[in-house]
Specification:
By secondary structure, the chain is mainly beta. The protein has helices at about 35-40, 75-80, 225-235, 280, 300-310; strands at about 10, 45-50, 55-65, 70-75, 85-90, 95-105, 110-115, 135-140, 150-165, 170-180, 195, 200-205, 220-225, 245, 255, 270-275, 290-295, 295, 315-320, 330-335. The strands form three sheets. Strands 1, 15, 16, 17, 18, 19 and 20 form a seven-stranded antiparallel beta sheet that branches. It has a six-stranded antiparallel β-barrel with strand order 2-3-4-7-6-5. A six-stranded antiparallel β-barrel has the order 8-9-10-13-12-11. Strand 19 and strand 20 form a beta hairpin.
């Protein structure tokens, strides 16, 4: 993969793009949980993504909620991806996948596999019944192209809160209510099932990546399955909200740098306006500082992303910005997909 610049384009101003999982051949031993693994693993899908603009690839995991190909995963697994391919472990079939919707704040996404039917479904547990000290295993895709990885351990804490920080923009989201597991969870395991000893999914693993850094020492975190399913139900019902977006993210077409240091006025520094994108068509160029959208002030990439998540392709938004000469300017942008 070609080397990327120090900053990365945040197409649709996503907090961070899907990331490449490091390839590590070792698979953690999970012999005591073999029966539990066997009940869930056929419903696991290994997810591969590509980002055309950056010539980047990524890897993650998901699992099937119904035989017709609904897949639950992390949003950061598919964020920014132009192409999503899912390989079902149980049947050996590969499918193209579409993003039904997502909740960026809680890092949940729901995908639909194209043309899928008769696929194995993951048995679901009750995360409210999870107890500290019980065994668990995270099934994932930390060895892209190989068999599923199995990271075994025990539940160590419940109700954990962590900061999921975007190393590229210094924006962050707080993930709350998480299950902590003492297991060697790795990038690529993201979005996969955390399975209890009874062979039931009790959580959605949110694994360490460049944007979701966790403490060292074989520690992983999972979104409780009850919470994840509630979000999936809202997405399935096509009911958008302040946190749930239906369909793919909207495209403004700008790149921002880490932390937006160097801005002489409050706002978000535009490091690159995508050629032919909505922002460039509105008049924005590299080096401008975007200050408001529809009158709402911008103080970070996070604020910009949150505003855009409430919009949909075809929406026309009002932009104000300060150009490189210090002049305030305004224009309208028609958002893309």
């Amino acid at each position: 993969m070609p080397r990327l610049p120090l900053y990365r384009l945040l197409i649709a101003l996503a907090a961070v793009m899907t990331l490449v999982a490091p390839i590590r051949p070792a698979i953690a031993s999970a012999a005591p949980l073999d029966t539990a693994i066997a009940s869930v693993e056929p419903a696991v899908v290994q997810i591969d993504t590509t980002i055309d603009y950056q010539h980047a690839i990524g890897a993650g995991t998901g699992f099937l909620l119904n035989p017709n190909g609904e897949v639950l995963t992390n949003f950061h697994v598919v964020q920014g991806a132009d192409t999503v391919t899912a390989h079902n472990v149980g049947t050996g079939q590969s499918f193209g996948a579409d993003l039904i919707g997502y909740d960026r704040t809680h890092d949940i996404a729901l995908l639909q596999l194209r043309g899928a039917s008769g696929l194995p479904v993951a048995p679901l547990g009750n995360s409210a019944a999870v107890a500290i000290g019980e065994p668990a295993v995270a099934i994932g895709n930390a060895n892209p192209g190989g068999p599923p990885t199995r990271e075994a351990g025990t539940i160590t804490q419940l109700g954990r809160t962590i900061e999921a920080k975007d190393a590229l923009t210094n924006s962050s989201d707080e993930l709350t209510g998480l299950i902590e597991v003492a297991a060697g969870v790795r990038a690529g395991d993201s979005g996969g099932p955390l399975v209890n000893g009874a062979g039931q999914v009790i959580g959605v693993t949110t694994a360490a990546t460049v944007s979701y850094r966790f403490e060292p020492g074989g520690k992983g975190f999972a979104i409780p399955i009850n919470q994840a399913l509630g979000i999936a139900d809202q997405i399935r019902s096509r009911a958008p909200s302040d946190t749930v977006h239906i369909g793919p993210p909207t495209l403004l077409g700008v790149g921002v740098a880490a932390g937006d240091q160097g801005a002489q006025v409050p706002g978000v520094v535009i490091r690159e306006a995508l050629r032919g994108g909505p922002a460039q068509a509105a008049g924005l160029v590299d080096g401008d500082v975007l200050t408001t959208i529809d009158g709402a002030p911008l103080d970070s990439a996070t604020a910009l992303t949150q505003i855009l998540d409430r919009h949909y392709p075809g929406d026309v938004i009002d932009l104000t910005w300060v150009d490189r000469s210090g002049q305030q300017r305004s224009g309208k942008a028609t958002l893309g997909s």
